[in-house]
Amino acid sequence: MRLRLPSKGWRMHIGKACWFLMKTELISANDEHCKEAVKAAVALLAAGEVVALPTETVYGLAGNAFDAAAVAKIFAAKERPSFDPLIVHIGRKADLARVALVPEDIQTLVEKLTNAFWPGPLTLVLPRHPDIPDLVTSGLETVAVRQSANKIFSAVVKELGQPLAAPSANRFGRISPTSATAVWDELQERIPLIVDGGACSQGLESTIIRMEAGEKRPTITILRPGPITKEMLQNFGKVERWKPRRDADAPAAPGMLESHYAPRTPLYLLGSPADFRPEPGKTYALMSYAGEGPFVEMHAWKAVEPLSPGNGKLPEAALRLFHIMRKLDACGADAIIVEPVSEVGLGVAIMDRLRRASTAVWRWAWFCRIPFAKRGFFF
Length: 379
Ligand code: TXA
Ligand code: MG
Prior knowledge:
The protein is α/β, with parallel strands linked by helices. It has 13 helices and 15 strands. The protein has an eleven-stranded mixed β-sheet with strand order 1-8-2-3-7-4-6-5-9-10-11, sandwiched between helices. The protein is globular, with a radius of gyration of 21 Å. Threonylcarbamoyladenylate binds next to strand 5 and strand 6.
């Protein structure tokens, strides 16, 4: 009897279905169980597996950065396109030389920045070391590197003795996870282990920068705003924000996709309360900055979630942003309305995530300065 193989399309479905055969373990890494959790994670990583680990920014899905097969598992579990490169996490500053080649003209700057912000939420884009597999950098000649300050992540990467490639532990395009439960919702049955290290202390992904030597001062280009703000970097050089060039063949940061961090419910970022014209029969939820003020009072919301209850502090808003986005996504409203935060300091990174999370056509309308009332709500 001739055995017929399923068609290519079916083989893809079967490939996807295989995830559902994987048992995902969730283990706590509280003080009592930290050593065991680290040991379990290191054993899996050493065997070429991937593991979700807490970092101070968001949870990461980690695999040995020198093991292309492990890195491929990261892309598969996340359904991430291979053109979107990963960040490599090192355990010690001295390991930078294993993954990147620091150009002589920015060596002093790199030293100053890493002394000031590592371990911590600053990612440096540098020429890559030839040992880094192509898959990690999506074929780019540069590699993004950081050292995480989370004690569990740090213990794992040091004990493994290899750098870890780790993107945020969510399915591609979805909201970054800031708790182990959020990772569970995203990747259960796709990965063998999630280490629960509690809520992340920053809540927003790292700042990503590129550096260039200059005649007087070096230039620091922010590719992705994050917890290390423009103001914090200004002591070290001239700071610029990277702007996408529509004519360029390849963007400087291939993962800086315009649409990202998206809830399933349409999300609209408003300039002012006057922009809001609810459609009859639709329900709306509000992401409020402080949980009080004109936005809160203007409508009978299905749900209201404050980013920074009472006092409107940006670090608290950053910490809660993705958690609140997930909560409102699950509340059953037809749309999520978001009150803007002031675009200073950490507010720049918060507004960056909110713009990317907002509904695509609506973003185009924002760009063209079309008032909300004239946009038609669900085009
Ligand atoms: O805080 C973080 O950075 C978290 C934690 C887990 O470390 N990681 C994270 O990774 O946010 P991910 O993959 O979600 O975002 C990494 C971003 C992507 O937008 C990617 O395009 C960009 O970094 N990136 C990676 N390598 C790059 C490179 N060589 N040049 C420019 N951008 C790069
Ligand atoms: Mg991500």
